[in-house]
Design brief:
By secondary structure, this protein is α+β, with helices and mostly antiparallel strands. The chain folds into 5 domains: about 1-35; about 40-80 and about 115-195, no CATH class; about 230-365, no CATH class; about 380-465, Immunoglobulin-like (Sandwich), CATH 2.60.40; about 465-520. About 25% of the residues lie in helices and about 35% in strands. β6 (about 155-160) and β7 (about 165-175) form a beta hairpin. α6 (about 215-225) packs across α7 (about 245-260).
């Protein structure tokens, strides 16, 4: 009897183990059933379609990476801010038809601005780009072969690493042909790219410039070498310089010298001594180039100009001063020089580039800018999100809509989640008094709400819908088809259009101030200037000049 009881206990133990295994298997099935349909389980007849889809995903990812590198870490254009006659910089540099946002510049009203995207910014823009482009992937050649293909709304997640970009796309894709079918819910892709390392190197170069102002130092050296700044000439005749010729020479010298700046590398010891002046150690292992062009917006100004001439008047030939026996011509001119520079950091065929402004005011460089926390989010606040807040988002008719929600507090930005039109959003926020909730939705103007998250609460945000409108310019009742820049400004929303390349615009309901700038090719003619001045001097005056020059030497 004792033996039988022990046998029964062993049988019960086996049944319990089998039951647990079955239970775990069932749980794992339901947890991972959405991912059970993988590429390895794709029927042979369907593999070409999915391979085509992955190829399309890779092409779109590479295209987005290329745009990020060519536009300084941005894909989508920023709202245009025009410059002025005082500060020639807008907030973007037009390089070969490519609009690149400045990382550092001065606005038209002389406000110092910095706009360096973070890696998180780049990842979000690349995610949006992939989501927009992947739905345009064409399967026309497969439809005609009897394939039935359905896809759902894509949601991309991108991680930019040093030497690769990892794309995780959630988009149910159903493919069916004949009696075979498959549903693939998620798609992973790793693209070989140096975007991450090039971006980090670009930040190092930018920080080096902001801390040391090397471009401004080179510009001052060029200014004093190629333009009259200050000095003394031994002469009894006035000295004149043509301003146009001075600026033309200065422009050519700046372009050539700025282009000569190089990053220190392993071949530094082989560089000729006279060329080491242009070599700088930026602390990166990539090629670094600096470009500027006379075709880009710039300003050269000089004080004490008399029309189109700089005139230095001699001292010593005036009445009562002839007794000193010689004449000299002192001069001191003050320059303001402002021009853009495009910085390029390259590795192989990949080039990451961004523009910045060089400013010399009153023969002096601008002050350096602190860049210790450049382009990085302060995520310390986001680590302590413990206050539950409900957020509901609506359109102008109070219909619920989907919107991405983020929260700003004292310079920190936290991504919260997406407010659903069905249930809204309830999530934990960091504690903050008078923080700002941001709501973004496609087809709507971004909305903000000042909100304290010290205690639990509920926020309701209304977003204004954007409506597409046709643009038309008339002058004197006649249609105008030339070039123009149109700016629309309201309290909540502003946008800019380049006409006639764009004849449609999206505006939200409201009152707008519209400004239209019309421009065309033109020429500026400066008349010639002549000035004659006669000075008499005796033999003894020149003799004393010669003696004094000998003494000075």
């Amino acid at each position: 009897m004792l033996f039988n009881r022990g046998e029964k206990r062993g049988q019960v133990t086996i049944f319990i183990i089998i039951s647990l295994v079955l239970l775990v298997g069932i749980v794992l099935f339901f947890v991972f059933r959405n991912n059970l349909s993988s590429e390895s389980q794709i029927p042979k007849s369907i593999e070409p379609v999915y391979t085509h889809f992955l190829s399309c995903l890779e092409e779109n990812s590479l295209a987005g990476i290329s745009v990020l590198e060519s536009k300084g870490g941005r894909i989508y254009d920023v709202d245009f801010e025009p410059g002025s006659t005082y500060m020639p910089f807008s907030n973007t540099l037009d390089f070969l038809g490519n609009s690149i946002p400045y990382w550092y510049y001065f606005s038209g009203n002389n406000l110092e601005k910095e706009s360096v995207p973070s890696k998180v910014d780049m990842e979000k823009e690349l995610e949006k780009f992939i989501e927009e482009k992947i739905v345009q992937c064409s399967f026309d050649s497969y439809y005609s072969s009897g394939f039935i293909i359905y896809s759902s709304t894509p949601k991309a997640d991108v991680k930019i690493n040093e030497d690769k970009v990892v794309v995780d796309l959630s988009m149910p894709l159903s493919i069916e042909v004949g009696e075979e079918s498959v549903v693939i819910n998620s798609h992973q892709l790793s693209v070989s790219s140096s975007l991450g390392s090039l971006y980090n190197a670009a930040k190092e170069v930018y920080s080096y410039e902001q801390e040391n102002l090397i471009l401004e130092d080179y510009t001052i050296d060029i200014l004093r070498l190629y333009a009259p700044v200050d000095g003394v000439l031994l002469s009894c005749s006035p000295k004149t310089w043509n301003v146009e010729e001075v600026f033309s020479t200065l422009q050519e010298a700046i372009e050539a010298n700025i282009y000569s700046i190089r990053n220190k590398d392993a071949d530094y010891d082989l560089v000729k001594e006279e060329n080491k002046y242009f070599v700088r150690d930026f602390g990166v292992s990539y090629d670094v180039r600096f470009l500027t062009s006379p075709n880009w917006s710039h300003t050269y100004e000089v004080t004490q100009a008399n029309g189109n001439l700089l005139i230095a008047t001699p001292v010593g030939n005036q009445a009562g001063l002839g007794i000193i026996g010689f004449c000299y011509v002192p001069y001191h001119f003050v320059y303001d020089v402002k021009y853009p520079v495009l910085v390029q950091v390259s590795k192989g065929d990949e080039i990451f580039q961004f523009p910045l402004a060089v400013v010399i005011s009153g023969n002096q460089p601008r002050k350096s800018l602190e860049t210790s926390s450049l382009g990085e989010y302060n995520n310390e606040l986001c680590e302590y999100m413990n206050t539950p807040i409900s957020v509901n988002t609506y359109d102008g008719k109070l219909n619920p809509i989907d919107a991405d929600i983020s929260f700003d507090c004292v310079g920190s930005s936290c991504e919260i989640g997406t407010s659903s039109f069905v249930s809204g959003l309830t999530a934990n926020f960091p504690q903050c008094a008078n923080g700002i909730i941001h709501a973004k939705a496609e087809g709507y103007v971004e909305a903000t709400k000042i909100f304290s998250t010290i205690n639990e609460g509920k926020a309701e945000i209304i977003l204004k819908e954007l409506h597409e409108l046709n643009l038309e310019i008339k002058i004197g009742g006649l249609n105008y088809s030339g070039d123009a820049i149109i700016l629309f400004n309201s309290e909540d929303y502003s946008t800019t259009v380049s006409y006639p390349s764009t004849k449609k615009i999206e505006l939200a309901e409201g009152q707008y101030e519209a400004r239209v700038y019309i421009y065309k090719n033109s020429s500026l003619k400066i008349p010639s200037t002549a000035k004659e001045q006669c000075v008499s001097s005796s033999f003894w005056s020149f003799w004393f000049v010669w003696i004094n020059r000998r003494k000075m030497l």
